[in-house]
Amino acid sequence: MPSINACLFDLDGVIVDTAKYHYIAWRRLANDLGFDLTLEQNERLKGVSRIESLEIILTIGGVHLTDEEKAEHAAEKNVRYLELCQQMTPEDTLPGVRTFIDELKATGMRVGLGSASKNAKVILERIGMLEYFDTIVDGNRVTKGKPDPQVFLLGAEDLNTSPENCVVFEDAVAGIQSARSAGMLAIGVGEKSVLTEADFVIEGFANFRVHDLIELSI
Ligand code: B16
Ligand code: MG
Questions:
Q1: In this structure, are 28 and 104 located in the same domain?
Q2: Which residues pair with 186 in a beta bridge?
Q3: Which domain holds residue 122?
């Protein structure tokens, strides 16, 4: 297997648990439109862009809107989401991930962010990790969302490396598909039963160190 010299991290669900805030904001929107959104249905929104998430929700509720109405509702949801994110602090960083990235950087590994979120920089700022990444590819830079490989291919390009030398850490099915079609090693963060297409799955970074990554990638 080619040697790994770069790691690309998804944001929501890998670095920080923002899924709960996305859920609250989307659920309120669904309620405003007259239906409910379950936690199980919310799983389908992970890793998916804002507007595509709205399309999924409208299908769930059987609601038809004009493009203009969709844009208004997506903007409204984002205002609510950002309000909820105001309460985030560095304490909200998921266990072990900061130490893991520190350790990666100490070994000379390049580190990038690959997120579908247009709010990625605001979130990173709130948790004090804006300066951690050698590159940030977010929802403002991509034209094709996950499962398209674009987000991670741009990350590899920014880090002057090749896809086969990159590892991706992802919590969403769409993100694992994106990493795999980019030709990168895809490590799922979460449950094996959900992330079935990942090369490996880890529970999180609390018990995962750089030597574990090296073992997985050889
Ligand atoms: P925003 P990731 C994704 O981030 C989230 O998983 C997904 O639930 C969200 O809809 C998407 O970002 C867009 O987020 O509304 O902030 O632009 O997991 O790719 O880091
Ligand atoms: Mg995610």
A1: no
A2: 168
A3: 6-16+90-217
Are 12 and 23 members of one domain? no
Judged by its nearest atom, the ligand closest to the C-alpha of residue 43 is: 1
For residues 148 and 115, give the distance between their C-alpha atoms in angstroms, rounded to a whole number: 12
Tell me the per-residue pLDDT of 23-49, one tens digit each, with 9 for 90 and over. 999 999 999 999 999 999 998 899 899
What pTM was computed for the model? Answer: 0.94
Which pLDDT score is estimated for 1? 57
Structure tokens at 144: 């094709």
Output the residue whose Cα is nearest ligand 1's atom 13: 117
Amino acid letter at 35? Answer: F
Give pLDDT, residue 215.
87
DSSP state of 34: T
Does the beta carbon of 50 lie inside 6 Å of ligand 1? yes
Question: For atom 6 of ligand 1, which residue has the closest CA?
Answer: 47
| Mean pLDDT on 191-216 | 94
Domain count, the chain: 2
Average pLDDT value for the chain: 95
> How do residues 90-111 score in pLDDT, each as one tens digit?
999 999 999 999 999 999 999 9
Distance CA 121, CA 141 (A): 12
Using the 3D structure, point to which of 49, 69, 85 is the last residue of a domain: 85
Residues 11 and 29 in one domain: no
Q: Both 23 and 10 in a single domain?
A: no
